[in-house]
TrEMBL record:
Organism of derivation: Atlantisia rogersi
InterPro entries: BEACH_dom (IPR000409), BEACH_dom_sf (IPR036372), BEACH_Domain (IPR050865)
Gene expressing this chain: Nbeal1_0
Signal sequence segment: none
CDD domains noted in UniProt: Beach
Occurrences of domain BEACH (ranges): 1-244
Full protein name: NBEL1 protein
Length: 244
């Protein structure tokens, strides 16, 4: 599979799906759901220029430190957060870590897929019989990216549906997801980047971005973090890639 990918005989999408499967990830287990990378950082332009390297996320860094400001916070010795250098488990059971959460977990999958059953019902069960507060819902792709850039505690990567399943961006079932507190805006369909004119257009352009020359040349750097040698040990520490 690796050789086929290197020879451009299979797509980046197919390679990531196969890597996830070989790593034991499956659509049948929300705690081990397939994980895909955030690949873009431009969610505000009117047009998406895939020939411009500046529109892409740095795939060599964990999502929690793509913003250099967050990298300083993660490394700081006496920051407000439980961070790597100043964490010590008195019982000696828990190893040091950079992030107290994870880039892929069941709650994150339900967060993205809240508009689609059976994930809607699973989300309601997780929230003790109701929808979570509207401000915490997945309501906007640009806002979700901005939250990642602003908050070193939010390290969610993406799920494969972002590259093939436009329906998860629409509230086709008419669920009452509440109102945002400040703007009073009703949470309904997911707000798309300016360069996407419909959910289908977003998926089409996002998939093109995944198969772009830039991502093809750098995807192995992200794979090292998630599936490769930077998962554990000194390489993970150096890459700011140690999880609780």
């Amino acid at each position: 599979v690796l050789q086929k990918w290197v020879n451009r005989e299979i797509s980046n999408f197919d390679y990531l799906i196969q890597l996830n499967t070989m790593a034991g990830r499956t659509y049948n287990d929300l705690a081990q759901y397939p994980v895909f990378p955030w690949i873009l950082r431009d969610y505000t332009s009117e047009e998406l220029d895939l020939n411009n390297p500046a529109v892409f996320r740095d795939l060599s860094k964990p999502i929690g430190v793509v913003n250099d400001k967050n990298a300083k916070t993660v490394k700081e010795k006496f920051s407000f957060f439980f961070r790597y250098e100043n964490f010590e488990d008195p019982l000696g059971i828990v190893d040091k870590f950079h992030y107290g959460t994870h880039y892929s977990n069941a709650a994150g999958v339900m967060h993205y897929l809240i508009r689609v059953e059976p994930f809607t019902t699973l989300h309601i069960q997780l929230q003790s019989g109701r929808f979570d507060c509207a401000d915490r819902q997945f309501h906007s792709i640009p806002a979700t990216w901005q939250a990642l850039m602003d908050n070193p505690n939010d390290v969610k990567e993406l799920i494969p549906e972002f590259f093939y399943f436009p329906e998860f961006l629409e509230n086709q079932n008419g669920f009452n997801l509440g109102q945002l507190q400040i703007s009073k805006e009703v949470v309904n369909d997911v707000i798309l980047p300016k360069w996407a004119h419909s959910p289908e257009d977003f998926i089409y352009k996002h998939r093109r971005a995944l198969e772009s020359e830039y991502v093809s040349a750098h995807l192995h750097e992200w794979i090292d973090l998630i599936f490769g040698y930077k998962q554990r040990g000194p390489a993970a520490v150096e890459a700011l890639n140690v999880f609780y």
